[in-house]
Design brief:
The complex is a heterotrimer of chains A (329), B (286) and C (426). With 329 residues, chain A is mainly alpha-helical. In chain A, 64% of the residues lie in helices and 1% in strands. Helix content of chain C is 46%, strand content 12%. The chains are: A mainly alpha (329), B mainly alpha (286), C alpha+beta (426).
């Protein structure tokens, strides 16, 4: 990638006055920097005010009201939140979602990283392999996935038969409250293509020289992974971890798709698939309790925000950004 | 006579082993996809409840059904609409999110941390509760039944996911590159355009791919904002095959799902090789 | 100069964005009228591609007879339809005319979202004459005409005649629950993998019929539940016991075959549902299915009523006259009857009913309705208060959990009553 070493001197530098060291222009919070920053952020600012922050504030307001979409919202203060804590189905949705996040996220990321490591070296047919491993993510959001998944996990189908080899006896996974969560986890893990692609991009950024140097020094594959790969991809790993957690907390379509068409019953068999956003959607759009649904949404936000904040704090411990300096030893 | 493998022989054996392993893994991973392909070749009433992977007598009727269109709307109409929205989204995301990411990653401006936190915060709220206020906003602007509500956000960096992704990549570029450029008199715009962006190509390509796919599969947006079936996207078209009151056409739906996969797969295939070029530090050494 | 190049690049991008934007705005559609008297109305309905083709034909017919009115239509599957409708109505943007159901008339009527068509009837744009079996009253809610029936249906028992014949039971008008339950038990015992009946314990419409046979009803005119916790405990208790005894399809099995019904998946030999669902069920299986009358408690009363899909107008429409003309055409025109057949239910007016000669499954449905009407068992419909749809969903969901074993009958009953109270009270 070329960046010219000798740009035309005739370009009047916009930030550094002639003679002054360039460093002053980068003084934290300097007016010029701030102006530049906000200029770059103009589209983002418009977007956030118009399309995101505005509606978010409206929903925050609605969470303190009783709103059925058609009458004006009625202020009810904290009642929605009180109702929430007394609502058994709400607690169920919290449990179901938490289990899903805790189980699906690590498995999915491990599989994604594993396959990415598999694919990182240039090989014959790599375009084919990369696309093939990514294909599930392409089809994962499609309506037909519901039909496939339910077919594969029914009684006497492939998964059931495979399970019997391991001594698992079920009447089919679909339709069984005890086994439908594993099918949801399986569906989520199956779509590892997205984090895999991001891992690939991150792995590609690791300079080969580092590996070669380590090999010369006699480091084992595991040592190379632990001391070079992991730290060098830690920004991407952090990104994937954070976003997978956020997405898992908000899982929606996959749960609906597995519970099958013919709605009416939010939560799948025996309520075992009642993930948080499904309950939220049911309350907001089907029972027309939009105020309650908004309160639920903000509760979710608080929960995820807590997890996010903790993760960000731990960044200092294990995430290494190249811009902060070199040196991986 | 030596019976040990030569170095290249070892390499070949390892390569074969790799391919076998990868193919075995693929067999498991792609089994559901093969099932869908098989289903598309089965008559509609054999799709639900049948356990066979491949049909005994494959039929082409489901694909022929696609040529008839849905409710007199030709299938390609859905594809063209989806393509328009998807490509429009990709351009918007690449343009606006990279600008915002550069600001967060490379410019020290007042309030940066606060705004960054705010940006991450926008990821945390389930979109269901934003639907109504956003709908009312677009309705007041008279933009219902157009593609604007589906595209506007992409040009205004509303997708914090991509901003954050690009930030992570940009932060992984050594500062020395920027400083060198500054000493040569470059301003932020030049650094952004000529240095940072090209080095972030993997992130940009990833964002393009994801944007295309998510836009292609987006259902709720088109559902709410498009009022004419001629404007419908593929995701809406897919759901036209099934209703509780009607005789469901699972065959048609599965066939169309597979057809809908093709553009996405092509897009991915076309761009995935750019993920390869990621040697980000080439600008620094030497 | 580099800066100039950057600016030029930005300008190109900017121009592209603007061009894209103009293209995206396209022709923002929607209802409109113009000086030359041409009116456009929006018609939304739920269904799939097959219904879409029929409706398109009827609209072509309508536009020919009313050249000054253009009808723009869009459709979704049932669940998505209501999501979209609720969002649009919340934004004040509901379609001018749309498909509706009896169960929702009060729900939206009380929020003043539905057009009162009485004024249009008085103005002569919409006729309430010639409706069959008192259907013209179906949309009359507290003196306002909030919907016009576009297809009627009534509850029936979809069953497998061959299996019932094998155990020597022939369904006929006036047969009793005892006879039915005996047949169900015999069928379950006879064959492995085939159950006598699907477990319909959570179906509100069936329980409503049962209650009506005992002089009660699911809802009262006072917008409360028309039965007690003990009533429901017995109803659910009986069903759960029969389920556990192996007479009814277990919940896990019926879940797996979704979206097919148990009877069309050849899991059960009978299922209570709307008579026009026979069309869909019949197409999903190779087994021959037929319609049987609802079993009675006293040998006579089935408690049935005629329900229907309706067409309603939006209270905010700018073209009430055209909406009324559209509804009038769709419900009375014989040409429409010939095109639609029984797709939305049995045709509501005599003009349409006589214009269409049903064949195949449609003929079975028509014969069933004729038989039921001749027997005089049809009674006025139970009024559905606002919140009825929530009660319907709660009943189905909670019984599902009971059948799956994740909750008990007693707990389920008290949960249902508290959810119903919230739904009906609000």
């Amino acid at each position: 990638m070329s960046h010219t070493q000798t740009p035309a001197r005739a370009v009047a530098p916009r930030d550094a006055a002639p003679g002054r060291p360039a460093a002053t222009a980068r003084r934290r919070g300097s007016g010029r920097e701030t102006l530049a920053g906000y200029l770059f952020l103009t589209p983002w600012c418009i977007g956030i005010l118009l399309l995101t922050l505005g509606p978010m504030l409206v929903s925050l307001y609605l969470s303190f009201t009783s709103y059925n979409l058609f009458d004006s919202p009625k202020w009810v203060g904290l009642r929605n939140f009180q109702d929430m804590f007394a609502d058994e189905r709400w607690w169920k949705s919290v449990r179901v979602t938490s289990v899903f996040v805790l189980v699906a996220t690590p498995i999915k990321l491990a599989v994604a990283l594993g396959v990415a490591l598999l694919l990182v070296r240039p090989r014959k047919g790599q375009a084919f392999y990369r696309s093939a491993f990514y294909a599930p993510s392409l089809i994962g959001a499609s309506v037909s996935v519901g039909i496939v998944w339910r077919a594969l996990f029914s009684q006497d189908a492939v998964v059931d038969q495979a399970g019997r080899l391991f001594g698992l006896h079920t009447d089919g996974w679909i339709g069984d409250p005890d086994w439908s969560m594993p099918t949801l986890v399986a569906l989520s893990v199956w779509q590892f293509g997205a984090p895999m692609v991001i891992f690939l991009a991150g792995l590609k950024q690791v300079p080969r020289e580092l590996y070669e140097a380590a090999e010369v020094d006699g480091a084992s594959a595991w040592r190379r992974f632990r001391s070079i790969t992991l730290p060098m991809i830690s920004p991407v790993l952090f990104f994937n971890l954070l976003l997978e957690i956020i997405h898992s907390f908000q899982v929606f379509t996959s749960a609906l798709v597995i519970a099958g068409p013919g709605g009416g019953q939010a939560g799948g068999p025996g309520g075992s698939l009642l993930v948080y956003t499904w309950y939220l959607y049911d309350q907001g759009f089907q029972q027309l309790r939009m105020g309650y649904a908004s309160a639920m949404a903000w509760m979710l936000l608080l929960g995820i925000a807590l997890v996010t904040a903790v993760l960000f704090r731990t960044q200092k411990l294990w995430v290494h950004y190249e811009e902060e300096g070199t040196g991986v030893r | 006579m030596t019976t040990t493998l030569t170095a290249s022989g070892r390499r070949n054996a390892r390569s074969v082993a790799w391919h076998l392993g990868a193919l075995a893994l693929l067999a498991v991973v792609l089994y559901p996809v093969v099932w869908v392909i098989g289903a598309s070749l089965k008559p509609g009433d054999q799709i639900i409840g049948s356990l066979q992977l491949l049909p005994g007598h494959p039929i082409a009727a489901n694909y022929r059904r696609l040529t008839e269109g849905i409710a007199d709307i030709p299938i390609y109409s859905f594809f063209v609409n989806s393509l328009f929205v998807a490509l429009g989204s990709v351009i918007g995301v690449l343009f606006s999110c990279s600008l915002a990411a550069y600001a967060f990653a490379r410019i020290r401006f007042a309030g940066r941390n606060l705004l960054f936190t705010l940006m991450i915060g926008t990821l945390l709220l389930p979109y269901h509760v934003l639907i109504i206020p956003q709908y009312v906003l677009f309705q007041k602007l008279g933009l219902i039944n157009t593609y604007v509500p589906l595209l506007l956000g992409k040009y205004l960096a509303v997708d914090a996911f991509f901003v954050f992704l690009m930030v992570q990549f940009m932060r992984n570029l050594p500062r020395e590159l920027d400083e060198a450029a500054r000493l040569d008199g470059c301003g932020h715009l030049r650094i952004y355009w000529s240095i940072v962006l090209p080095l972030c190509r993997p992130a940009l390509i990833t964002s393009a791919i994801f944007t295309f796919i998510w836009s292609w599969n987006d259902f709720l947006g088109p559902l709410l904002y498009l009022n004419e079936p001629e404007k419908y996207t593929v995701s809406l078209g897919l759901k036209m095959f099934i209703d509780q009151d009607s005789i469901a056409d699972y065959g048609g739906m599965v066939a169309m799902s597979l057809a809908a996969l093709v553009p996405v797969l092509l897009f991915f295939l076309a761009f995935q090789r750019y993920l390869v070029e990621g040697a980000a530090t080439s600008g620094l050494k030497g | 100069m580099n800066v100039r190049r950057s600016v030029r690049a930005l300008r190109t991008v900017g121009a592209a964005v603007v061009a894209l934007g103009l293209l995206a705005v396209g022709c923002g559609g929607g209802s409109g009228g113009s000086a030359d008297g041409k009116v456009t109305i929006r018609y939304s309905w739920w269904g799939a591609a097959d219904r879409a083709e029929l409706i398109k034909k009827t609209i072509t017919l309508f536009e020919k007879k009313h050249p000054n009115i253009t009808v723009k239509t869009d459709f979704q599957e049932y669940g998505d339809f209501w999501t979209k409708f609720n969002t649009q109505a919340a934004g004040g943007n509901a379609p001018d005319v749309f498909q509706n159901s009896v169960a929702f008339l009060r729900k939206y009527g009380e929020k003043n979202l539905l057009l009162d068509l009485n004024s249009q009837v008085k103005a002569g744009n919409l006729s309430l004459e010639d409706f069959r079996a008192g259907l013209e009253k179906a949309g009359d809610i507290d003196g306002k005409l909030l919907g016009v029936p576009v297809g009627g249906n009534t509850f029936a028992l979809v069953y497998n005649p061959a299996e019932f014949k094998k155990v020597g039971v022939t369904p006929r008008l006036g047969w009793t629950w005892d006879e039915y339950n005996t047949a169900v038990k015999k069928i379950s015992e006879a064959k492995d993998g085939l159950y006598g009946a699907s477990d319909n314990g959570g179906v509100m419409y069936l329980y409503d019929l049962y209650l009506r046979q005992h002089g009660k009803a699911f809802f009262t005119a006072d917008k409360t539940l028309g039965f007690t916790e003990d009533d429901l405990k017995q109803w659910w208790g009986d069903h759960l016991a029969a389920n556990k005894a192996g007479d009814l399809v277990p919940a896990k099995k019926s879940e797996q075959v979704k979206p097919k019904s148990s009877v069309s998946a050849d899991l059960s030999a009978s299922e209570f549902t709307w008579d026009n669902f026979l069309v869909r069920y019949g197409a999903e299986t190779k087994t021959a299915l037929a319609l049987a009358p609802i079993p009675t408690t006293d040998g006579k009363k089935t408690g049935q009523y005629i329900s229907s899909l309706m067409l309603s107008g939006s209270a905010r429409t700018k073209h009430p006259k055209e909406v009324a003309q559209f509804i009038d055409f769709m419900t009375h025109d014989p040409g429409v009857g010939k095109i639609m057949g029984y797709n939305r239910g049995v045709l509501p007016t005599n003009a349409q009913f006589d214009a269409y000669t049903p064949t195949g499954v449609d003929a079975q449905v028509a014969a069933y309705e004729k038989e039921v009407a001749a027997a005089g068992v049809i009674e006025p419909i139970t009024p559905h208060p606002a919140g009825a749809d929530v009660c319907e969903a709660s009943l189905l969901r909670i019984y599902g959990e009971i059948a799956q074993g994740t909750t008990s009958v007693d707990k389920g009953v008290s949960t249902f009553f508290s959810e119903a109270k919230t739904a009906l009270g609000s």
